[in-house]
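Input.
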Amino acid sequence: MMRPARLFVTALLALSSLALADVRVGVVVSSTGPAASLGIPEKNTVALLPQTIGGQRIVYTVLDDASDTTAAVTATRKLIQDNRVDLIIGTTTTPASLAMIDVAAEAKVPMISLAASEAIIKPVDARRGWVFKTPQTDALMAAAITGHMQQNGVKTVGYIGFNDAYGEGWLTELQRNAASRGLRVVAVERYGRSDTSVTGQILKVLASRPDAVLIGASGVPAVLPQKTLKDRGYAGKIYQTHGVANADFLRVGGRDVEGAILPAGPVLVASQLPDTNPTKKVGLAYTALYENRYGQGSVSTFGAHMWDAGLLMQKAIPVALKRARPGTAEFRAALRDALEGTRNVIGAHGIFNLSAQDHLGLDARSRVMVQIVDGNWKLIR
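Output.
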């Protein structure tokens, strides 16, 4: 029988070991390649995330997938197998995030995606049960775009988007919303993220004489179709997705992207929001923190998706710590459950109320419509 003194020492050692255990967070972002304008602010924001949560040290390991799906999967496997992470955050793009799902689910490691497509989290099945996300879905944002079109007399819409899961997701949502809004999709064209010309596709779109054109693309590559439309004299409304809401898009696009209309997270225009908006305070705080470190005007919605992932961690990790020790399968399962049970987290983009049926938990309060005016984002009231 173990003596009381030895029992006491053993208990102290166990408690000390638990207290010193690190929560390991693996981050995959596209900090190079075509999606770099999205991934760089995500990577930058990691440095602003908390170093301790619930008394536990948080260790972040950040890997770049170079905007490549295969590289994202390889990075995810490395983080799980070599770094033994408790949580994956990433990645930047929809195709790569979709590819990471099987890896995370097989290892039973919870994952918070930073990509847009609703297909990343729906349906919440055995695989997607391990996956969450912070960006607004294409479905949520497409409803805002088509609503704006309807209110502004648009009847016919041309579409050009990426020839991957991001572009296809947006096309699906446009077509799903069109009929109920009295809209008719009259042209559909696709292009690659690294293409240098879309003249052929734009000529086909213009031949259909649409009232408006939606560009289903993200980051700097979304400039090309709008520039080509302008070069060809198109005078109708041009809509972009929330995938362009960063300073690089404005810088590269210049006058060619003037007038573009898009849905965005409220953080993009936090200073223009009414004081009654519940996300304004958080958005302004994140903006100040980011710009104090990286420069005036450098904030983007993409970094704020990483910030919101950090807020979800701050809510979920203390709950999971009550059930298990970091670094164990039990802790990862507890963290998954805690994320799914997260309620009333006010983020930079909206208010998160997750559930077993909804692994995003945002509603219409997470979006505003904006327009590019004089090289800046202007809230459409």
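Confidence is low (pLDDT under 50) at residues 11-19.
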